[in-house]
């Protein structure tokens, strides 16, 4: 190609390039202008947004604080000027001052927010007004803290609940405090500070004060589990012991809000109620009646020992708290319930008492084993019912016997001839018999119309007008003084001439029995008996005087007869037959004189005038002397006489003459009764406190029908005698304090036994010194 062409082409290319560059530059300038305009527009919008955001941050009651990567305050806080002033106070470095307050309790949480972006929220105490809510978040590569007064922060749902707990503030009378996520105290109200005796929160934190260690443990548990915890604690302060209910409520971010509700009064009331219930249960447990208490769920809540004993139920089964229906079924199995046709209906009616508002009327159960139970059902104050079972079997029996006895007493009183009336302590007539109506000539209606003792006395004064009598009876009836309630008696004369005897008797129940009787005939009879007794005494005295006089009158001629007969026996020229006649006369006269002496002795004993002469009596000597007196007569009849006496028998205290007189009579009777070939024995035996003297013979004996009267005086006996000898024997032995008996079998002889004490002690003995034996 030519150089011109090359130049042309080069020039054209350069021109084209220049035109293209110009066009591109124009296009680029346009785009740049558009970009600048858009950037300016965006800047203006950003400034407007920033202004709106800044206004928005300052329009709400909160404060935001940005943090640097080093954890320092990135400038001043953003927010309400009023709140920033409350937080910073007079400090120039507002952000640093606020952050310094936060780090006192939330240093670890702020550090975790800056280093790892771990968000948190909770409550913190920054002034003395109220707690602040703190939130930590990461936004735009920076860490932010947001603070707001708890009372001005409102949320919904769970957050609103958590904030509401913090809003209690110082106005709450309950001690309330907030613990942050590190377990340190973040805020507390005035009640909490007053309870631990701290002026400020800072002072409490500095001194490490705490409400209670147990409460702290409960708060820590709530923070760890994130679940509400409740507990009960007793604290002592101000000289008093108080009970608290502790509630620890998680507030988010590891913070916990705790409340202490004082329940001292409730606990004391509960403790008092518990002791009262225990005392009540203990009291019921000592009752003889069976008691069972069923709760609102119809389960056995309590039973006393008597209940378990009454129905003989296993105590372990009762401790399992069976239902009322189960208990009824168990009792039915043991046949401890009344036998009914429709048990299901009866059981349903028993369980209907749970809906009753008042106690039901007493019921009675007749059990198959014969027992009768009284059942009381009443609503329990704590819900359910209370059942009381009383075994009234014996009570019913006693009541039946009592009613029968009352009827018998009434019938008995009506059959009495005495007029009987019973007055109560109030002076009213309780009971009277038919004889009372007859004695006072009063009808039943008039007696019933008398309201009290005075009214009845006015009716009775028409028959017995003695004011002193009725005044005295009223004192015994109505006066409660024990000195007045004594038994008295007396007599009076009625207007118709009868003699009325009256007497009072206080009764155990406070009543008084008054009895009136017509003793006119009795008094007449007593007077006649007195007169007869006087006449009898005079006749007895006359008899004794007559017997004594006759006896003494007979002694003189008898003495003469005995003397002359003895003289005739000694005369040598008297024929033998005449001498025998004189001897017979002497013997008969002597027997007659002895009989007279016996009669005199009996009369003296009857008059109580015989006096014993006690002394030391040797029994063996007395027996030998008595035996020698009748030995000739016994042996003369062809019989034998033996004396048996222990050799070591000691003397006894007795009247030797009178005992000898008794033995003489017994030996003479034996000598008359014994026949040829027979035997008479005089024997002495000793006992622990007596000596027995026995006179026995082998004669004809004594018929059985006469043995009971053998010692009676002046009774004719087949054994002969004047009828006073054996009676005198008995009387003489009894004067010594002993007694006499007879043992006999007809045809085989008889034995008379005298029981004498070792030492006679009788009023018939003359006073003397005790002699040594």
TrEMBL record:
<dbReference type="GO" id="GO:0000155">
    <property type="term" value="F:phosphorelay sensor kinase activity"/>
</dbReference>
<dbReference type="InterPro" id="IPR035965">
    <property type="entry name" value="PAS-like_dom_sf"/>
</dbReference>
<feature type="transmembrane region" description="Helical">
    <location>
        <begin position="6"/>
        <end position="28"/>
    </location>
</feature>
<dbReference type="InterPro" id="IPR036890">
    <property type="entry name" value="HATPase_C_sf"/>
</dbReference>
<dbReference type="InterPro" id="IPR050736">
    <property type="entry name" value="Sensor_HK_Regulatory"/>
</dbReference>
<dbReference type="Pfam" id="PF00512">
    <property type="entry name" value="HisKA"/>
</dbReference>
<protein>
    <recommendedName>
        <fullName>histidine kinase</fullName>
        <ecNumber>2.7.13.3</ecNumber>
    </recommendedName>
</protein>
<dbReference type="InterPro" id="IPR036097">
    <property type="entry name" value="HisK_dim/P_sf"/>
</dbReference>
<feature type="domain" description="Histidine kinase">
    <location>
        <begin position="549"/>
        <end position="760"/>
    </location>
</feature>
<dbReference type="Pfam" id="PF12860">
    <property type="entry name" value="PAS_7"/>
</dbReference>
<keyword id="KW-0418">Kinase</keyword>
<dbReference type="InterPro" id="IPR003594">
    <property type="entry name" value="HATPase_dom"/>
</dbReference>
<dbReference type="Pfam" id="PF02518">
    <property type="entry name" value="HATPase_c"/>
</dbReference>
<dbReference type="InterPro" id="IPR004358">
    <property type="entry name" value="Sig_transdc_His_kin-like_C"/>
</dbReference>
<keyword id="KW-0808">Transferase</keyword>
<keyword id="KW-0902">Two-component regulatory system</keyword>
<dbReference type="InterPro" id="IPR005467">
    <property type="entry name" value="His_kinase_dom"/>
</dbReference>
<keyword id="KW-0597">Phosphoprotein</keyword>
<keyword id="KW-1133">Transmembrane helix</keyword>
<dbReference type="InterPro" id="IPR003661">
    <property type="entry name" value="HisK_dim/P_dom"/>
</dbReference>
<keyword id="KW-0472">Membrane</keyword>
<keyword id="KW-0812">Transmembrane</keyword>
């Amino acid at each position: 190609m030519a150089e011109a062409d090359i130049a042309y082409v080069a020039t054209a290319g350069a021109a084209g390039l220049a035109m293209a560059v110009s066009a591109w530059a124009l296009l680029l300038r346009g785009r740049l202008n558009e970009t600048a305009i858009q950037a300016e527009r965006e800047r203006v919008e950003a400034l407007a947004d920033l202004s709106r955001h800044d206004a928005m941050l300052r329009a709400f009651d909160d404060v935001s604080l940005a943090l640097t990567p080093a954890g320092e305050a990135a400038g001043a806080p953003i927010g309400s000027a009023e709140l920033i002033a409350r937080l910073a106070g007079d400090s120039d470095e507002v952000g640093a001052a606020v952050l310094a307050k936060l780090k006192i309790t939330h240093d670890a949480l702020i550090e975790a927010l800056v280093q790892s972006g771990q968000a948190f929220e909770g409550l913190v105490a920054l002034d003395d007004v109220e707690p602040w809510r703190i939130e930590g978040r990461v936004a735009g590569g920076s860490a932010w803290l947001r603070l707001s007064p708890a009372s001005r922060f409102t949320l919904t749902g769970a957050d609103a609940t958590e904030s509401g707990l913090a809003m209690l503030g110082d106005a709450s009378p309950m001690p309330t405090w907030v613990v942050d996520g590190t377990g340190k105290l973040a805020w507390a109200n005035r009640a909490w500070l007053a309870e631990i005796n701290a002026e400020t929160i800072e002072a409490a934190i500095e001194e490490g004060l705490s409400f209670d260690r147990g409460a702290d443990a409960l708060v820590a548990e709530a923070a760890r589990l994130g679940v509400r915890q409740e507990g009960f604690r007793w604290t002592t302060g101000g000289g008093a012991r108080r009970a608290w209910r502790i509630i620890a409520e998680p507030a988010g971010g590891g913070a916990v809000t705790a409340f202490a509700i004082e329940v001292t009064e409730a606990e004391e009331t509960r403790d008092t109620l518990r002791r009262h219930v225990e005392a009540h249960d203990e009291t019921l447990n000592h009752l003889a009646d069976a008691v069972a208490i069923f709760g609102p769920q119809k389960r056995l809540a309590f039973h006393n020992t008597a209940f378990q004993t009454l129905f003989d139920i296993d105590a372990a089964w009762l401790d399992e708290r069976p239902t009322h229906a189960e208990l009824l079924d168990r009792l039915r199995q043991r046949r401890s319930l009344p036998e009914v046709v429709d048990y299901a209906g009866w059981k349903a009616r028993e369980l209907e008492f749970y809906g009753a508002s008042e106690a039901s009327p007493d019921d009675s159960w007749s059990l198959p084993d014969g027992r009768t139970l009284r059942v009381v059902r009443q609503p329990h104050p704590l819900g359910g019912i209370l059942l009381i079972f009383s075994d009234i079997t014996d009570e019913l029996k006693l009541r039946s016997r009592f009613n029968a006895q009352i009827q018998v007493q009434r019938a008995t009183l009506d059959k009495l001839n005495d007029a009987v009336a019973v007055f109560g302590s109030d002076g009213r007539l309780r009971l009277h018999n038919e004889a009372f109506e007859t004695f006072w000539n009063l009808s039943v209606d008039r007696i019933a119309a008398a309201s009290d003792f005075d009214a009845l006395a006015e009716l009775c004064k028409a028959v017995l007008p003695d004011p002193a009598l009725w005044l005295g009876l009223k004192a015994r009836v109505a006066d409660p003084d024990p000195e007045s309630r004594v038994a008295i008696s007396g007599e009076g004369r009625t207007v118709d001439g009868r003699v009325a005897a009256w007497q009072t008797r206080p009764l155990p129940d406070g009543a008084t029995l008054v009895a009136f009787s017509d003793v006119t005939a009795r008094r007449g009879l007593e007077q006649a008996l007195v007169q007869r007794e006087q006449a009898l005494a005079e006749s007895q005295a006359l008899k004794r005087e007559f017997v004594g006089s006759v006896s003494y009158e007979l002694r003189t001629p008898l003495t003469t007869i005995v003397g002359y007969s003895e003289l005739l026996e000694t005369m040598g020229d008297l024929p033998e037959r005449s001498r025998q006649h004189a001897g017979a006369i002497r013997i008969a006269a002597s027997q007659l004189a002895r009989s007279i002496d016996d009669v005199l002795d009996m009369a003296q004993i009857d008059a109580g005038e015989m006096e014993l002469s006690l002394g030391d009596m040797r029994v063996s000597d007395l027996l030998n002397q008595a035996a020698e007196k009748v030995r000739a007569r016994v042996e003369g009849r062809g019989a034998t006489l033996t004396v048996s006496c222990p050799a070591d028998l000691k003397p006894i205290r007795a009247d030797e003459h009178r005992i000898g007189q008794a033995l003489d009579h017994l030996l003479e009777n034996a000598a008359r009764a014994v026949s040829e070939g027979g035997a008479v024995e005089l024997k002495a035996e000793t006992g622990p406190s007596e000596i027995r003297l026995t006179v026995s013979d082998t004669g004809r004996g004594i018929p059985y029908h006469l043995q009971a009267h053998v010692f009676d005086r002046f009774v004719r006996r087949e054994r002969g005698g004047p009828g006073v000898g054996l009676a005198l024997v008995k009387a003489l032995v009894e004067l010594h304090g002993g007694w006499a008996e007879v043992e006999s079998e007809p045809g085989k002889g008889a034995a008379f036994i005298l029981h004498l004490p070792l030492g006679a002690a009788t009023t018939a003995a003359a006073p003397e010194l005790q002699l040594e034996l």
